[in-house]
Design the sequence.
């Protein structure tokens, strides 16, 4: 398998996080308004979802075109966003889009847990190029990530079912990425302990 083509890291970050930031901006501008489209009234949340879905599709295609590769997580996320975002817009019901992160995280937790049971570390296949580690390190990281995704699924359910729409949008836009970044920072010692030497080290 060929290595992904290198692109400007700022461009890559913009393509990955730009659609989410756009969703946040559109929602914040329209959250207290009702928008009428083709004779049907939609909340600001639904309009933000309507904007987010095609923009995510375009940014993901652009990322694939520029790098020549998409991670399995990116593909799964795109498919579920199109399905559940489309259902939210079609049925004019925000619940479908809100439950989407729960389903994504449960799928990832299940896949990682299943890979541990089968003794085949799929996480290593996806991330080994960026984080070369010994097999024991991958087993520990896989277990921790499976538990993380399970916890995120539970957290998403609690937030969208018990808090305001604005609280959920803030949680999705800033809370979930911050938790993921914090997770990898917290595992820095694991990466150092089980790291494999790189060429030239």
Sequence:
């Amino acid at each position: 398998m060929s290595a992904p083509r290198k692109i400007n890291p700022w461009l890559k970050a913009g393509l990955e996080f730009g659609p989410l930031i756009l969703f946040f901006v559109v929602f914040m501008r329209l959250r207290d308004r009702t928008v009428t489209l083709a004779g049907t009234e939609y909340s600001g949340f639904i309009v933000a979802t309507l904007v987010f879905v095609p923009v995510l599709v375009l940014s993901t295609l652009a990322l694939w075109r520029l790098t020549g590769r998409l991670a399995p997580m990116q593909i799964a996320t795109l498919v579920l966003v199109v399905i559940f975002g489309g259902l939210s817009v079609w049925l004019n019901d925000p619940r479908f889009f809100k439950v989407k992160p729960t389903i994504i995280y449960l799928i990832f937790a299940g896949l990682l847990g299943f890979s541990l049971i089968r003794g085949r570390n799929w996480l290593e296949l996806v991330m080994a190029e960026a984080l070369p580690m010994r097999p024991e390190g991958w087993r520990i990281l896989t277990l921790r990530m499976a538990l993380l995704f399970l916890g995120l699924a539970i957290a998403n359910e609690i937030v969208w079912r018990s808090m305001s729409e604005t609280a959920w949008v803030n949680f999705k836009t800033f809370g979930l990425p911050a938790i993921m970044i914090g997770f990898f920072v917290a595992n820095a010692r694991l990466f150092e302990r089980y790291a494999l030497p790189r060429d030239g080290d």
Summary: The beta strands are 34-37, 40-43.
